[in-house]
């Protein structure tokens, strides 16, 4: 779509690109309105221990349904929210809501280890991010051990010094940290050894590759790397029994994916857990 860019020539602002920018600006406006009108909501996808099938927790995933009933993917609107700064308030809302949901699930008697919350790099870099996390935990009454923050490699590359400090602080509270989409970023491996991280999440692109005979075995490599570093490994995007079996053979600890369950509304969790048993 961005045909205006060409190697070795000047970047020309074409009419086509203008349309795209206007579209994005409009989408951004809609996004702000949607947040105000509570058209953004969370769904929760179960995560299980592969060997025992025990449900260990849920990952909170944002959803946006427009007034016209169209679903817009977070891979589309999260970057927009990051660009406009909305991610700060949106992310705070996600964090609080997730903590309250988890507290409720525990109060309802469900035995779960954690709730996974995606945190954008921009959000993580906010000076008061730690305070935000603390207040979400305090207000919901959720024990910090039940909270897992999913950060991406891009977080680990930003302003190194106070990033490590923030992580250490979180660890001292008992909060768990997962590196999301591991292997898709560009960070060096050397940081992994020293960062207080609990879990690596294998991106679903790598899980998808498992089918292809003789294809790259990134999922297995990541699992072995995780084991060597004493980290737990979880695979996302498990869609087939073949994926499941292969991951089990690799000794991957945990997984989530459509084979197990699609993301669900909060009020469907209780029934799903009952059936899964
Ligand atoms: P992610 O954190 O890596 O989340 C996993 C994505 O894989 C989710 O997509 C989930 O619905 C999808 N998925 C899980 N199992 C399967 C499967 O078996 N097959 C397929 N095809 N997909 C599967 P989703 O919900 O569209 O979210 C996409 C990304 O948007 C997330 O990737 C995350 O990076 C971002 N995101 C979602 N919610 C939030 C949020 O609250 N805050 C932030 N900062 N980012 C979020
Ligand atoms: Mg995630
Ligand atoms: Mg992921
Ligand atoms: Mg992913």
From TrEMBL:
<feature type="domain" description="EAL">
    <location>
        <begin position="24"/>
        <end position="277"/>
    </location>
</feature>
<protein>
    <submittedName>
        <fullName>EAL domain-containing protein</fullName>
    </submittedName>
</protein>
């Amino acid at each position: 779509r961005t045909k205006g860019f060409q190697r070795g020539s000047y970047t020309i602002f074409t009419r086509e690109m203008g349309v795209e920018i206007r579209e994005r600006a409009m989408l951004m406006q809609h996004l702000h309105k949607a947040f105000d009108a509570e058209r953004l909501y969370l769904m929760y996808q179960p995560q299980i221990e592969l060997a025992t099938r025990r449900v260990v927790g849920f990952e909170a995933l944002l959803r946006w349904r427009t007034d016209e009933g169209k679903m817009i993917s977070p891979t589309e609107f999260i970057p927009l929210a990051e660009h406009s700064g909305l991610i700060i308030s949106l992310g705070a809302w996600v964090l609080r809501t997730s903590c309250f949901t988890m507290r409720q699930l525990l109060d309802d008697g469900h035995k779960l280890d954690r709730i996974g919350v995606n945190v954008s790099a921009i959000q993580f870099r906010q000076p008061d991010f730690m305070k935000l996390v603390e207040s979400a935990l305090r207000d919901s009454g959720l024990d910090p051990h039940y909270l897992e923050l999913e950060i991406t490699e891009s977080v680990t590359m930003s302003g190194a010094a106070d990033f490590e400090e923030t992580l250490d602080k979180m660890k001292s509270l008992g909060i768990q940290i997962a590196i999301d989409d591991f292997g898709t970023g560009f960070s060096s491996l050397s940081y992994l050894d020293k960062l207080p991280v609990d879990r690596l999440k294998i991106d679903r692109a790598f899980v998808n590759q498992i089918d292809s005979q003789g294809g790259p075995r990134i999922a297995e490599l990541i699992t072995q790397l995780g084991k060597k570093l004493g980290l737990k490994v979880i695979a996302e995007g498990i869609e087939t029994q073949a994926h499941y079996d292969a991951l089990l053979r690799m000794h991957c600890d945990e997984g989530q994916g459509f084979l197990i369950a699609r993301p669900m509304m909060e009020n469907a969790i209780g029934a799903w857990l009952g059936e899964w048993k």
